[in-house]
Structure prediction request, 607 residues.
Amino acid sequence: MTGVKAPLQQAVAQALEALGVDEPPPIEIQETPPNQPGDYGTPVAFRLARLLRKAPPQIATELAEKMHPPEGVVRVEVAGGYVNFFLDPAWLTPAALQPVAPAPKQGGKVLVEHTSVNPNKELHVGHLRNVALGDAIARILDFAGRQVEVLNYIDDTGRQSAESLFALEHYGLAYDGSKKYDHWVGDAYVRLHREMEDGEAKARLEPAIRAVLHRLEAGELRGEVEKLLAAQLETMWSLNAEYDVLVWESDIMREGLLKKALELLEQTPYTSRPTEGKYAGALVMDTSAFIEGMEDPYLVLLRSDGTATYTAKDIAFQFWKMGLLSGLRFRPFTRQPSGRELYTSHPEGTPMPFGGAQETINVIDVRQSYPQQVLKVALEAVGRHDLAEGAYHLAYETVLLEGRPLSGRKGHTVSVDEVLEEAVRRARAVIAEKNPGLENADAVARMVGIGAVRFAMVKTEPKKQIDFRWEQALSFEGDAAPYLQYAHARAASIMRKAEAEGLASDEPDFSRATPYEVELAKALLRFEESVQKSAELKTPHVLAQYLLDLAAAWNAYYNAKEDGKPATPVLTAEEGLRGLRLALVAQVKRTVATGLELLGIAAPEAM
RNA sequence: GCGCCCGUAGCUCAGUUGGAUAGAGCGUCGGCCUCCGGAGCCGAAGGCCACAGGUUCGAAUCCUGUCGGGCGCACCA
Prediction:
C-alpha cells in the first residue's frame, strides 16, 4: 500500500467505525477509471450491503458523511455505490516524489536456485528463460526487503557430463580455441549421440561412459568440469546474471549428505525396504499420505543395486538448503563482473554460512513439477510441515522456437550466445541508423540487445508457454525493453539539458500541478505496489508490465498537445512549473532505471 | 486412464484477496517533428473473455460440466 492509499484506507476504516460496523471487510482503495469522478475510490459499500441491509449508494452516502477526509483530500463524492476521493494536485504530486529505495530487511533468508544447467554443453534458449526469471526474482525479493542467497547447482556427476567428457576422450579431441569452449564440448556431445543412435555402438560404449561417471563421482575430473563451467559462466554474466554460491553434486555426495538425508527418512514410517515384489531390494518412500490419487505411491530412493536416484540426491540437497543437514565446505571460486565474489562448495574449503534458509525458490521448468512436489513430501515426512510450506517451485512453461519444441538432438535449437550476438548486432544497426553520432555505441548496443532478450523472457507469466521468434524477441518497438530504455534516455536527455542550462535546482511549485502532472504522478505511485506484488507472487512479469505502463504514461505526458502545441514543455515552462516538471522527470528516470535494474536490464543515458 | 496447467482482438499478451465502460503491443487505416530525442505520440477499425450451466448486488476472475491445446505419471537424469 503506497503512501497515498494508506491514509484513505484509514479514513474509510474510521468512518466505518463511526457507522457502527464492528468487523469491517477488507477496504480496497483503487484508482478511479477514466471518466469516473475522483482520483481514488473504494467499493467497500457493496460489501456491506448485506450486513447493513441497505443499498450500496445509501451506505456510501452515509460513509461519506461520517468521513474525516485526511490531508490532501479536497472532496469526497459518492458515485453509484462507490466512495470517491478527489486529491489536491499540490499534495499528490510531491507524494509521488518519494525516494525509490529498497525496503528495509525483514524476515528470514530466502534461497533462490536458478540456472543449474548440466555442465556438458552451451546454454540454449530454453535455459535463457530460467536465468532471466531466476535472476530477476532474486533482485526483486532483495529490493522488497528479503535476505536473498542465489545458488547455482552443478550437476557434475550426471550422465550428460559423463557423456561429454567421454566424447572428448573417445574422439581424441584437443581444444584449439576455434570456438567458445562450451560450444566445442557440446559439438562432441552431439557427435557422440549421433554415433549412439546405433544401438550396438551404444552398448559397446556404455562401459567406458560408466567409467567416466565413476571418475566424476570420485571428483577426479573436477578440473575438466570447471573449464566447461567457466565457459558457461561467461554466458550467464553476459546476461547480467550473477550468483552467490555454486554447489556441486559430487560435494553433496562426498560430504555424506545423501546418507544423512536417507537416515532421517528411514527413521520415519514412510520409508521401507521391500523384500519381494517389484521393489525388492530397493529403498522406497510411500507418498500416499501426502499426495492423493497416485496409482503407485512408492518412490525409489535407493535402487536395488544400492545407487541413489536423482530424486534422492535432490532431497538431500533440499534438506541442506533448509538447514536440516550441514557439512558442506566452501571457498572463493571467482570474482564476477560486478565485483561480487562467487563461492563454491569444495572438498578443501571451510564451513561457511550458506544454506539454512526458511524459504526456497527453485526455478525449474514445469515438467519437474512432480519431482519438486516430492521434495515437499520428504520435508513433510520428516515432520517439517513449516519447511514444506516454504519450499516454492517457480515453475515456468517451456520455450518453443519458431512454434516448434526445442530439440537438441534434431538440431532445432539456438544457443544463448548466438541469440545475444544477433540481438546486439541488430541493436547496433538501429543505432547506426537513428543515432549515428552516439559515443559509446557498442556498449549501448549490448545494453539494448541483451535487454530486449531478457525482457522478452520475463514480460509474460511464467506458466505460459513462450514461443521464441527472432522478430518478436529482438523487436525494438512496442512492448519491449528498448521502449523502456528509450523512455529513460529521453528523460536523461532533458535532465542533461536542464543541468547544462543551470535549471536543475529550480524549486518546484506544486500548486501549479495540472491534470497532466497528476496522471504521471499516479503512474509513479504504482511502482512500490508493483514491486511488492511481484515479490509476493514470485514473478517478475508484474513489474515488467508496470514499467511498460509507466513508460507509456511518461511518453504520453511528453507528447501531450493542446491546440497542436506542446502542453507540457519542461525546460521552457515558467519557473515554479518548470521545477515541478523537472522533479517529475527526474523521478521517472530514477523509477524506470530502478525497475529495469530489478529485471537485470541496463538503462542507458543515451541510445 | 489419472493428475496439473492453459484457452481474452487477425497474431503475441496484460487484466489475482470478484468491482465502475475488458486494456496494450504487432499488423491494418488516418493524423502528429518551426517544440525538451519520431526506438515516440494521438485517433479509427477489430471482443459471445472457448462453450454451457451455477454462485453473487456485481464474474474474464469463484464452482461444476463439455470441448480444444500443452505437460507429467520410470529402480532415466
DSSP finds 21 helices and 19 strands in chain A. The mean pLDDT of chain A is 94. The CA atoms of residues 323 and 356 of chain A lie 4 Å apart.
